[in-house]
């Protein structure tokens, strides 16, 4: 991963953001810019250089993971340390990550930095993270291969009477074995009427004949997370659920077909929403179409109603329409797609047809 290139790209944006330097403290953003995988660090990045700061627990780890930057201790009082660095560099306007700085941390920093403008900046690193480089895409593809493999293996062990929680454990184990040990997130497993809840927590419900099974899960590779949902049936599902599956599959395909560079996120959401509305289930699709994936399971860009954000080549995001009918059940189908120069590439290979076990 070319962390230096990422830092230079960010440094080139400071002027436009009207700041002399940016303090990055969100661990995921620090990781993106340096390769450091610990939980406590900071980078102060100005137009010329970046200084990496971490606490004593991570000195040794940082020496290995961040060999290319000047490294300093974060100290007992990080605000004071950062203020010292800002004074040393003669910076007048310091950007902080608005989404990742508590009100208290902002106040402490402002107190230490009398005479310096502390400017909240939104999404500066997140915006860079939207577009994946070839190494990131490779990591995502490997995470997806592991996810597809785990799904194949799970289908072999689904049996009458198994509980959602037990199936979630089995799925987690398959994901860990096929991927990089770490899960992208706790798998969602929902049977029958429970599937009407989009983010159902796997519980004690036992699998019955005719249930749909919503499985939402993902493996990781080198810190990159993937996200897939399949809805399968155990035995023969109710005719309406079969119909809903067909509608959701068509909605997903229509949205995937509409993905291309320059497409607005809100328009893609609308494409899927229209297919579902035409089938009479408009009220039953009550979440956004998708989200970016990468170092975080949910990251920019957000594919939701009204968003004018446009997609760029290299962006990885999910396309996940769903229809949820209380008392009956639900269907969601989700895949990660990568925006190409003229369309989209679906990363996963698992069938999107209704599998009846
Ligand atoms: Zn998901
Ligand atoms: Zn998702």
Structure write-up:
The strands form 6 sheets. A 6-stranded mixed beta sheet has the order 4-3-2-1-5-6, with helices on both faces. The chain has 2 domains: 3-129, Creatinase/prolidase N-terminal domain (Creatine Amidinohydrolase, Chain A, domain 1, 3-Layer(aba) Sandwich), CATH 3.40.350; 134-346, Creatine Amidinohydrolase. The protein has helices at residues 3-11, 27-34, 59-65, 78-89, 103-112, 124-130, 134-157, 164-178, 239-258, 265-278; strands at residues 21-24, 41-46, 50-54, 70-73, 93-97, 117-121, 188-191, 212-217, 220-221, 224-225, 228-233, 290-292, 299-303, 316-319, 322-325, 329-332, 335-339, 344-346. The protein is elongated, with a radius of gyration of 23 Å. α4 packs across α5, α7 crosses α8 and α9 packs antiparallel against α10 (265-278). The model has no long low-confidence stretch (mean pLDDT 96). It is an alpha+beta fold and 357 residues long. One zinc ion is lined by residues 227, 291, 318, 320, 334.
Radius of gyration: 23 Å
- Work out the count of structural domains: 2
CATH superfamily of the largest domain: Creatinase/methionine aminopeptidase superfamily
What is the fold named in CATH at topology level of the largest domain? Answer: Creatine Amidinohydrolase
Q: Class of the largest domain in CATH? A: Alpha Beta
> Which second-level CATH architecture of the largest domain applies?
Alpha-Beta Complex
Number of helices: 10
Bound molecules: zinc ion
As a percent range, the share of helical residues equals 25-40%
Mean pLDDT: 96
End-to-end separation in angstroms reads 42 Å
Unreliably modeled segments: none
Beta-strand level of the residues, as a percent range? 15-25%
Main beta-sheet annotation: 6 strands, mixed
Order of helices and strands: HEHEEHEHEHEHHHEEEEEHHEEEEEEE
| Beta strand count | 18
Helix/strand/pairing category: alpha+beta
